[in-house]
Amino acid sequence: xxxxxxxxxxxxxxxxxxxxxxxxxxxxxxxxxxxxxxxxxxxxxxxxxxxxxxxxxxxxxxxxxxxxxxxxxxxxxxxxxxxxxxxxxxxxxxxxxxxxxxxxxxxxxxxxxxxxxxxxxxxxxxxxxxxxxxxxxxxxxxxxxxxxxxxxxxxxxxxxxxxxxxxxxxxxxxxxxxxxxxxxxxxxxxxxxxxxxxxxxxxxxxxxxxxxxxxxxxxxxxxxxxxxxxxxxxxxxxxxxxxxxxxxxxxxxxxxxxxxxxxxxxxx
Amino acid sequence: xxxxxxxxxxxxxxxxxxxxxxxxxxxxxxxxxxxxxxxxxxxxxxxxxxxxxxxxxxxxxxxxxxxxxxxxxxxxxxxxxxxxxxxxxxxxxxxxxxxxxxxxxxxxxxxxxxxxxxxxxxxxxxxxxxxxxxxxxxxxxxxxxxxxxxxxxxxxxxxxxxxxxxxxxxxxxxxxxxxxxxxxxxxxxxxxxxxxxxxxxxxxxxxxxxxxxxxxxxxxxxxxxxxxxxxxxxxxxxxxxxxxxxxxxxxxxxxxxxxxxxxxxxxxxxxxxxxxxxxxx
Amino acid sequence: xxxxxxxxxxxxxxxxxxxxxxxxxxxxxxxxxxxxxxxxxxxxxxxxxxxxxxxxxxxxxxxxxxxxxxxxxxxxxxxxxxxxxxxxxxxxxxxxxxxxxxxxxxxxxxxxxxxxxxxxxxxxxxxxxxxxxxxxxxxxxxxxxxxxxxxxxxxxxxxxxxxxxxxxxxxxxxxxxxxxxxxxxxxxxxxxxxxxxxxxxxxxxxxxxxxxxxxxxxxxxxxxxxxxxxxxxxxxxxxxxxxxxxxxxxxxxxxxxxxxxxxxxxxxxxxxxxxxxxxxxxxxxxxxxxxxxxxxxxxxxxxxxxxxxxxxxxxxxxxxxxxxxxxxxxxxxxxxxxxxxxxxxxxxxxxxxxxxxxxxxxxxxxxxxxxxxxxxxxxxxxxxxxxxxxxxxxxxxxxxxxxxxxxxxxxxxxxxxxxxxxxxxxxxxxxxxxxxxxxxxxxxxxxxxxxxxxxxxxxxxxxxxxxxxxxxxxxxxxxxxxxxxxxxxxxxxxxxxxxxxxxxxxxxxxxxxxxxxxxxxx
Lengths: 268, 281, 522
Prior knowledge:
heterotrimer; A: 268 residues; mainly alpha; 78% helix; B: 281 residues
């Protein structure tokens, strides 16, 4: 398939890029608009950012979003990784059952997961709010962590843990010193997916929250009925944060690689 | 080691509570009557009857399906050429282009959908452009067009990725073989590339159709408050009317439609192997 | 020597399948013990039970007087060298070897001393800082051994450690492993399926099969006195023939009586007679206890390995008639047609159909200009299940026709009472061209003659191993030729430094103590 790309191909790719990025750029530009208008630019101003930072509900939503995303990431990464390790040593039947059930929240429409959890929390009598939102986020994040850790475990030499224990390591030491370092890339990518899934979630959060606990998505949804340029500022903030996370994730390994290379070169 | 096996047990308990139990609750509610009280359930098919006997709900269902199908078709028609063009590049550029496609999906869907509201407004950037060339303002926001646009925008990356993967996984020597056997570019595309990439198209279709048929914030933001799809009906039942039984029944109907369409997609997925020679993993 | 490990009636079950069926085995200090057997015999399972990675379903593992059945691996005084080494890929050579000592929190300087000593033992002093993934298979192997030995275990378990190495390296490592074992003076328990490895390194070999121990003994014992046909076959190459005991120290095989040294069998008991290839000597024919013909010779470096056939198998000879290809030419229709006579068994007449006739007569019609085939539209024949000649006429649509004969004959088979088998083949016609063009003549001859052989006991197929013919396939022309098919007879593998040639008539001789008698299995 190494034919030359025709002009049409280039045009198509440019149009695709415009289609994908125009709305994002648009919203970022208008977050600095001097007027309330969402359509006409009237000079540069940071007033919408000031408004956002002084708006209690917005600041709370930002706080809840980040707090839940961080907590859900940590919990689901730890639990998901341990579960994946346990499953990799379990009988095939058990592994298959868990994998199938795990697929439910991944494959189900989010709205179905959302109402299911809503009814579940009400049935067992938990008050909706921060706790239910966190539980829900952990629930839909773990399957993604398991999905990204499992393949790494599968490609591992099954004797590694045995070898560690043979040399005197307790199961816990074998886990921490041998297995975890081997599957770190899978754990990290699982954590990244979990973080962004939680950070970006709207549908499930929308159904399981209550008691005035909103995240950024819910806020955008409820506020979007009226023109409110602060949402642009908030959205720009969200875009900036996710971009930052993505850059960090992509750059840190590169730096490590370079450092390692330099080290190797000095050794040689 | 047995000691390792045991560390997955807590999650199995959690999974049963948080994944299985809610699903069972939906089924339970769908087949029972009013009363958000767990103890006073009575079996009934009333909720389903109510849905299928009401022309309003059937209209909503029809509209949801039409929009989901339209979205899916457009995603295939646009996504295939884009994926194909990407697959023509060298691996390094392919990686960059794939990144270009995936990057927006990391950003909150709601934020991205909200962005279109400004663009599509009567005095928004598109209509400003139209007035420059002397066209009157066209109503874009709060139309079916806007809803489908929003869905295509949000879901087409899944389609492109799936097709791209199936195109790159394809054994290049097959194309060379086809050309060696006298097929021209178009023929070898139609007879080799297309059938072999069909599995990617199929899985792309399921990945687009599923969220499209159940979406409720895209119609709300881009279609306006009056624009109702099946997702919006479910939302209303749970958060406004408080009729969980009816809402569960509608969710179940939607789930059945989705399962049926996935089953259908899987069936189509299998048949091309007989004509394409089959290189599915 | 002190008893170090005792397996007491170890049973292991996986999902209802018995992998170990009651193993009783003692292992002593400073022994090099090899568990030998084919894959699936349970040898690795037994090793993993000793390592602590599996718990036996039944039985006891006594180590130094204590039952360690339920002791986790990290509390056992054994270390393992794993299949494919299981080196930790994220650690370098030094870190891998130091792992066990660090876990035990030994002081840093002691760790360094011990690691360096180990690296020296395995001849890899300069590799401490290397990444383990950069090492060759042999080097990784040595690191795995060093990593295990640095913990000063009283037993080292090795699970097919040389399996991934090439032949030359494997030989080298075998010597080195033995050397290391003697140097550190601990018990090695070595699992392998390679009998040569077992014989060269071990003090004691445990031959296993299907979860049971077949024989335990020194390499010499096992080699010279295998307890049954299975062990004899697995350890080294053996000639195994059917025989019958006449009484103590007397056995009959190949219809002759021989002296042996075995006692304790019932008179007239059927036995397997095992003779090692190197125990057989080739002598002039008249001096041989057995007489035969050299069938094949393979040079093995130092010696020759020869197959001597002492008795031919069951054979049958059939006639092959090579006829000229004389197709009938129909000028009007521009068509040619050809066919040949063929033989039929009386018994097969009843099942005869047109497709078979066309195939057997090789009937075909074609256009000589384009070489395209023309279909045969009509086949006229009448036949009876009696010996005789019956004409058959093939005709195309355009009327081109040819007539040939179907010759019905009595079925041609040879029965051998000695081998209790039967062989069958029939005469056939062929065109010279087909013989010239044959890519695998022996197989084709078998097909053309419909040759097959089977056992009279259970109807099972017996392989036809020899096809002989008295023509030169390159130059064969019309005429009548003999083709002989035969099953395998009694053959002995003989190892000798003297060279004999294929077809040499020789005698075989052996001493009474070289005959090993064992009970028939099952």
